[in-house]
Amino acid sequence: VQLQASGGGSVQAGGSLKLSCPASRIILSEFTKSQMEWYRQAPGKQRELVAVFTSGGSRNYQDSVKGRFTISRDNSRKTLYLQMNNLEPEDTAVYYCHVDTGSRDYWGRGTLVTVSS
After folding, report:
1. Which residues, in sequence order, are bridge partners of residue 98?
2. pLDDT (tens digit, 9 = 90+) per residue, 23-32?
3. From CA 39, how far away is CA 103, in angstroms rounded?
């Protein structure tokens, strides 16, 4: 584990959370050209890809979160974010950040998101 995701918590359906993943261990020149992702793993299920921010600046989302989640990055802070709005109970999971610099990849310690109905 080289990164530490934070921002998880317990919210009611319809609520919002913003996850952060600072990448202090990655030098800026590598960070700016990295592909970055958020994954999640619900209890009893496999880890799944939620959102991608490519090195070229494209953003892609899993169908179930389109229109509700936004992935972003702040290169000056070397931090990856995931804004989650209109949360649903099905979004309950441990969320992980992943950074692929092209020569090395980094995973974050997960942060738990619990959405109650």
Report:
1. 37, 107
2. 988 999 999 9
3. 20
